[in-house]
Amino acid sequence: MQPSLVTTLFVVFVLASALTRLWLDGRQARHVARHREAVPAAFAHVVNLHSHQRAADYTLEKLGFGILNGLIGVAVLLAWTLLGGLDALNLALREALLPHVGPLGYQLALLGAFSVISALVDWPLAAYSTFRIEQRHGFNRMTWGTWVGDQLKQSLVGVVIGAPIAALILWLMGSAGSAWWLWAWAAWVAFTLLLMVIFPIFIAPLFNKFEPLADTALADRVQSLMTRCGFQAKGFFVMDGSRRSAHANAYFTGLGAAKRVVFFDTLLNKLSHGEVEAVLAHELGHFKHKHVLKRMVMMFVLSLGGFALLGWLSQQIGFYLGLGVSPNLDAPNDALALLLLMMALPPVMYFVAPVMSHFSRRDEYQADAYACAQASGTDLSMALIKLYKDNSSTLTPDPLYVRFYYSHPPATERLAAMSALSAAH
Ligand SMILES: [Zn+2]
User: Fold this and answer.
1) Distance 279 CA to ligand 1 centre (A)
2) Which residues surround ligand 1, an ion (CB under 5 A)?
3) Chain centroid to CA 319
């Protein structure tokens, strides 16, 4: 591979994805601003003009911040690659560490230093998002103490979980022969599955408190829904989501038919029992239609492709040179190849996102239909309206923006699909 070809392809994808993003953000902003003055007819009876305008302002502010974020991201990406940032970091660490800690130690230090620098770039932006944007629109419930504690805990968990798997993959790259990528992929899959088992038990409690659902009337109702749908509940829990944010949610954890059900306290505060049941039925629909399993299998297939690509690219000198890095002559290049692929892939994958969001939206319709069959459709509609309203999600998104990014259909389309469903019955 010619370095110049790699550079050209990289620049083309970085520019194309950045410009497409700007263009779509612009469309979305104009569309939301244009519809700021009137509540869409379908919502006129449930959403007042004031909350509609609040949602528009929140959406516009997040869009503006997203544009700034995207531009910073492009600058950082170019600084790491073509402008020589990763090359300089690699040179410094290689000289300082290689003689003392060996090839694996030096490569882990390179991954670690890269992660620390990336986190330092991200933190001010994340803080701005929480303490300016979310704060101004009344969603933030975090103090600076909680926020800093969260960041530290997340970094610590990242090191404890990330370092062993990174060491294992680097070791396999160096010593498992030319089919190392197959072994590395298998290790990655095993590790991901393990993480799914230990996350609810060991990691989630580091960040939130989980208490058994005390409302027995609701617990009975939810229990009978689970039985009706063929699931066993491994327990109902309430999570103190309100410690951090006013946004509401519910989710499941656990493999197989036995599920731990977790409600955010914010959800229970806003919805009636019937509405909670309908939201839960929607989540169960995702399991009944095997969406969760399909998504996991797709992720594993994609990551197999990613590892195979890494196996091939790591052997191409042009891949390193074309992205601004001189490969090592006296040390393995595996960590460098890993970092370069992690940076080069997102601008390419950006154009695959609409396909993913298409399938994701289709799944949402199926889950809604399942919920309407197992619980009350009226309750589900009401719950959706309340959640869209409380989260200040815009009711008037740009159609093209929706096609590209939305993992969930916009409220209007979801409600229309549900009323078409109930009319058909
Ligand atoms: Zn869903």
Assistant:
1) 9
2) 364, 367
3) 28
pTM over 0.70: yes
- Beta strands in 256-322, from DSSP E residues, in sequence order: 258-264
Q: How far is the CA of 353 from the centre of ligand 1 (A)?
A: 18
What confidence score (pLDDT) does residue 258 get? Answer: 66
Distance 382 CA to ligand 1 centre (A): 15
Order of strands across the sheet that contains 258-264 = 210-212, 232-239, 258-264, 250-253
- pLDDT digits 0-9 by tens, 157-166: 889 988 999 9
Q: What are phi and psi of 223, to 5 degrees?
A: -60, -45
127 Cα: distance to centroid of ligand 1 (angstroms): 28
The secondary structure of residue 328, as a DSSP letter, is P
Q: Rounded to whole angstroms, how far apart are CA atoms 409 and 358?
A: 9
User: From ligand 1's centre to the CA of 417, what distance in Å?
Assistant: 14
What number of H helices and E strands is found in the chain? 17, 4
Give the Å distances, CA to CA, from 116 to 70, 152, 230, 249, 281: 20, 12, 46, 31, 41
Q: What residues have CB less than 8 Å from 126, skipping those under 6 apart?
A: 151
**Average pLDDT score over the chain:** 91
Cα(91) to centroid of ligand 1, in Å? 47
Dihedral sign, CA of 386, 390, 277, 361? positive
Pairing between β-strand 258-264 and β-strand 232-239 as defined by DSSP bridges: parallel
For the segment 54-113, what is each residue's pLDDT rounded down to a tens digit?
Answer: 989 999 999 999 999 999 999 999 999 999 999 999 999 999 999 999 999 999 999 999
What does the block give as tokens for 421?
């469903």
Query: Which pair of tokens denotes residue 325?
Result: 């890095």
Q: How many angstroms does the Cα of residue 368 sit away from the middle of ligand 1?
A: 7
In angstroms, what is the span from residue 253 Cα to ligand 1's centroid?
14
- Whole-number Å distance, alpha carbon 9 to ligand 1 midpoint, is 36
Q: How far is the CA of 286 from the centre of ligand 1 (A)?
A: 7
Q: pLDDT tens for residues 206-248?
A: 888 999 999 999 999 999 999 999 988 888 999 988 777 777 6
Which residue do the tokens 């950082």 mark?
76
